[in-house]
Amino acid sequence: MKVYTGKGDAGQTSLVGGARVSKASSRVCAYGDIDELISFLGLLRAKVPAHNEVLRRVQCELMNLSAWIASEGHIERLKAPDPLWVEVLECQIDAWTAELPPLKAFVIPGVPAPSSLCHVCRTVCRRAERAVVALEDSRPEIGLACRYLNRLSDMLFTLARLICIQSGKDEDFWI
Fold first, then answer.
1. Which of 30, 52, 66, 158 has the fewest CB atoms within 10 Å, i.e. the most exposed one?
2. Least confident segment among 45-54, 69-78, 83-92, 115-124
3. Which has the closest alpha carbon to 24: 39, 10, 35?
4. pLDDT tens digit string along 10-28?
5. Are 100 and 162 in contact, with CB atoms under 8 Å apart?
6. In the 8-state DSSP scheme, what is residue 23?
7. What are the residues whose beta carbons fall under 8 Å from the beta carbon of 95, sequence distance 6 or more?
8. What's the predicted TM-score (pTM) here?
9. Sign of the four-CA dihedral 131, 132, 135, 136
10. Quick check: 63 and 38 in contact, CB under 8 A?
11. How far apart are CA 3 and CA 15, in angstroms?
């Protein structure tokens, strides 16, 4: 199978289900932002192998979410966002937060590099969340997708702090 088909050369792509849309459509932009996040999370996994399992699970959830976003309606084989995904993120945030000192001010990303990479992932996640909100998708699960991305950005922020603290570096605060 060839990687290229030439079908997208004129600026159109196919959604799951076959509909052709502009590559600049809000739906394509939303799942593209999620794809970018998945890629940055792969880089983060390579930098912080101690958190590989958590980050890989998130990548798989995002792959499911991306495929679901890439459809405009109900397609049986696609999984809609699951409320359990949010609960798992919240449990992880709570566990990591218990290991952290209280937050004093806004954090300025810096050293160590893996902590800053978490912040890059967090900001890409926020962009993906905005893109999903902009879809104005009428499916009831779209709210859960936004909630998941919102919580994921919180988890990535918490992981950035944890990595910084565990590395022995002082957090850099904007005061």
1. 52
2. 69-78
3. 10
4. 898 988 888 898 999 999 9
5. yes
6. T
7. none
8. 0.94
9. negative
10. yes
11. 17
